[in-house]
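Quick one:
INPUT:
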């Protein structure tokens, strides 16, 4: 197996937050291509960057495209 040196990141087109990441797997190019195609289909900007050059934050979007931003905790729960 070849060790990856790069990965693809999918960023929100509005705020630039990273939503997705996949290693550039040279020995499994079809899987890498499928993941990148899925990012594009989901409306993300895709970049190929060096491993370790981008910090992945778990905060999510700070833009209007985030449908749950600002909602109180459990707001999406269905009550009987």
């Amino acid at each position: 197996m070849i060790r990856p040196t790069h990965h693809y990141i999918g960023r929100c087109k509005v705020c630039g937050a990273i939503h997705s990441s996949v290693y550039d797997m040279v020995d499994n190019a079809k899987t890498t291509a499928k993941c990148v195609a899925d990012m594009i289909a989901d409306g993300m900007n895709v970049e190929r960057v060096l491993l370790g050059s981008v910090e992945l934050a778990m905060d999510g979007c700070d833009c209007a495209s985030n449908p749950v931003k600002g909602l109180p905790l459990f707001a999406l729960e269905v009550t009987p």
